[in-house]
Amino acid sequence: MAADMQNRLMGCLSPDENVRRESEAWLKSAEQSDLGGFMYALTQALSTEGSDLTVRQQSGLYLKNILYAKDTNTLEQNRQRWKALSPDAKTHIKQLILTVLNSPEQVARHTASQAIAEMGAIDLPGNQWPELLPNLLNNVTGSTPDTTKVSTLECLGYTCERLDYTDLDQTTTNNILTAIVDGMRAERSDPIRLAACTALRNSLLFCRGNMENKPERDMIMQVICEATQCTDGKVRAVAYECIVQIGEHYYDKLDDYMQVLAQLTFNSIKTEEEQVATQAIEFWSTLCDEEMDILEEIEECREAGEQPSRACKGYVTAALAQLSPLLLEALTKQDEDADLDDNIWNAAMASSTCLTLVASTVGDGVVDAVMPFVLQNIKGENWRFREASTMAFCCILEGPGTGKIGNFVNQSIPVLIQALKDPHSMVKDTTAWTLGRICELHASCVPPNLFNDLVTGLKSVLINESPRVSAQACFAIHNLAMQITVDDSTTTNLLSQYLPALLQDLLQVTERPDWDEANLRPSAYEAINMLIQHAAADMAPILEQLLPVIMDRLAKSFAMSVLTNEEKDAKAGLQGLLCGILQVMCQNLSIEAVQKQADNVMQILLEVFKTKNAAAHEEALMAAGALADKVELGFERYMDAFHPVVMHGLKSHEAYQVCTVAVGVVGDLTRALGKNVARFCNEIVQSLLEILQNSTLNRAVKPHVLSCFGDIALALEGGFEPYLQVTLMMLLQASQTRAPDDDEDLIDFVNTLREGILEAYTGIIQGLDDGGKVQLILPYCEAIMSFLETVTHDPNKDDEVISGAIGVLGDLSDSLGTQVPGLTSKKFVDQLLMEGASTGVDKIVELAQTYRTRIDNHKRGAGM
Length: 864
Known about the structure:
This protein is mostly helical.
């Protein structure tokens, strides 16, 4: 197989598509028929000196990817396949691949280190590769070439990154750490120190046991701090990356080291080359993130009457006087070409991010530290200082209270409006961004007498300025419109006199020759969306005139050229944006205005569904949902054509965003059509059940599906009976999902899942009650009450879950009363209602009080 492997790997790189496909199919077939032999052949290809380097690299990456996957389920499947190989097959592969760490070719060594790490991550915890670590440690500490030491240190770092700190015993971990620290010694060559620093960065979580031990932690911190003084800038940068990791994962251990770390980082921010300075700045950004999280936790604990688990040391506040001047100085080191490459990250950008985080962490205190610099330089002769001072002001808009920053915002408006005419594009760019942030955060501070100047100024840079400046102006207009109140008691608002001209200019912006730069076209359409949403009643004629314009643009988009991938993406993006506008217009125009154009809107949307464009389908589905919501029963005439579209969306399990939107549209249709949706429900319910049963589908879809069953039940009322049993079985199964206390992502998901379950129960109970068949729910009431009890006792439930649980409890009370087992006797019922009453959320408090009274009435009626 080895000779064929070389040829097939080379074939995968062929410009001939047929050759590529044939080679890829051969590789897939070989992998499936004999995994052990296939992996050994790949290892042979990787280890063969003198062969094509690209093929060697490809073979190593193929090996790694056989074992690794981002998806947790796929990763576990891959690991089980490896474990199922015979010990002899694995031994041959492992023995051969270890020799590649000695290869004279860096590409082969580097790729081998990644593949070895994946094998080690599987076999080391079960002691299935006992010779690996001694081999690697000997490479680092023995008399091997420097190139071998470097690749071995890489391998150790990758391996530690793939392991949990509990996977190996502490002695083995100590040996790994000793080898890495040995590579960081000052007498080692710079390439070895760099590899060792990188390995340490990747292993800091793995070495948690060592970091908990003060003498060992002192040693680790010492070698890292020494590495920040290395003559090689790459080593210094990675050493600071280690410090950043320590700030994130070991904040509570920093006390003994903060004085030294502050001195090192301050000096590096001021004097170091950019790659090092940015990492020194990142350390303070990380501390801001940590302290904000801790302060938030402390506040949550205070409200709950609990003791917080962590203390905020206030490092950022203590460093403010020394840190802020360094960040402000770094802001003046702009790179005028930085916006040409999204991958560029420099000290000025890092400083603006850090200063923003400092403002959010420190609050009012940052104003006195920054505003003298702003006031001194915002009108200065040097453009760098004008831009830096404007950016600094923008950075501190969020964090300080309006009482502290408000007067400065008020005074800044005329200065910033004038700066939109600055001769330097970066100043104009930052100025427009700052005005956008002011409109977002402090619109109340804009002087009424300057509102006209503000709108006029932003409008003036839409057409002829650079794409970045125009996009920032769109952002500002979007945020300004968002702050305008739409009051049903009046027919006009502040936007009305500007809206026609703004819409006209923004539509023109979307067709600028440079629309594809700086996210200009999407920014303009988002601004249009927000103007439509906040338009007053007197603008209805203008919006009605806009609707056919948008449809005409969408109709013309079908004729756009798609000869290249760029043209294909441009067409897809434009159609998605235009469908988004149609959705917003259907939501905000009057019923009469939408009904006039409903046939035309639906016809154009059906044309969109004929294209192979998932992003546009998503937006078009939402537009169709909005149309259904507006015309209600009038939408039934489109259902024969639209039903297949919805079914296709529900079956788009790979494009889970489209699937999610399709589920939401089913809810729209049930509310619009009521019982008239019944003839489509067999297929819809079957597809919803398939989604729930699909273990590989993104889990974010499933809460929406569960909630959708409630929408269907509300629409069908008693007609939901055929689907009742299978639906309730699914709900009961979903109710078993739990989340560990230390997994925030899973806690959030479980809360969202439970919201969907509770919404489904509410819809089912109310629908059956309306249809006179609520008795059908009685056999399931005990299980539903058990679920409500589980929810009540969960300390991680959020307010939405509390509200939903009280709602279901109330629905059971209203429809079945004392027939519900435990309604008047279970202790959790009182606990749940008490928690609802203490949330401080008016709607939940009112709900809890209402059902408290009703359940108390049931108790009295039962003689309790």
